[in-house]
Amino acid sequence: MKNPWMLSAVALGSGISAGAMADDKALSYSQLDTLLNGAERYGFSRYEKLDVDHDDNRLEIEGWREDGWELDVSMTLDNAAPTRESQRKSNTPDWSLSGEELREALDRARDQGMQHLEELEVDSDGHIEIEGYTGNQTEFDLELHRDDLKFVDINTGG
């Protein structure tokens, strides 16, 4: 399933200017898409957590490769280059999100007004929590059920 924000990521290219993000508290969808493409190239197939760290200019990603190895990787916000990684043999849990499910959850958040991602996390009970900011930089919090992506709770700062 193609996402509507994919075209803007293609136009953006593979690099993200740190100066362009200096005024943002979190990642825009086009920046996030570029980084998620980098995560897929790195080998991620299932996801547990995304966490933006602007102070250290990185996106921290936790998840699994197709072969079951658990990954914890930090990538630069500038170009998705891995800066830190750890991996261990594990079993991929059923509650983790596929790349498509992750993007669908992010689309649900965007449809509700989120413009910039700060954090996404799914837990073993199947709850997805997404934090970020709206276009006017007010805080945005959304909780979804993992199985059907239905809303549990939403706070759009308004």
Biggest sheet features: 10 strands, antiparallel
Q: Average pLDDT across residues?
A: 84
Q: State the share of residues found in helices, binned by percent.
A: 10-25%
Q: Termini, distance in Å?
A: 31 Å
Count the DSSP helices. Answer: 4
Question: How would you explain this protein's 3D organization?
Answer:
Helix 1 (6-12) crosses helix 3. The chain is globular. It is 24% helix and 42% strand. Strands 1, 2, 3, 4, 5, 6, 7, 8, 9 and 10 form a ten-stranded antiparallel beta sheet that branches. The chain has helices at residues 6-12, 18-21, 29-42, 99-111; strands at residues 27-28, 44-53, 58-65, 69-76, 82-89, 97-98, 114-122, 127-134, 139-145, 151-155. By secondary structure, the chain is α+β, with helices and mostly antiparallel strands.
Secondary structure layout plus pairing:
Layout: H1 6-12, H2 18-21, E1 27-28, H3 29-42, E2 44-53, E3 58-65, E4 69-76, E5 82-89, E6 97-98, H4 99-111, E7 114-122, E8 127-134, E9 139-145, E10 151-155
Helix pairs in contact: 1-3
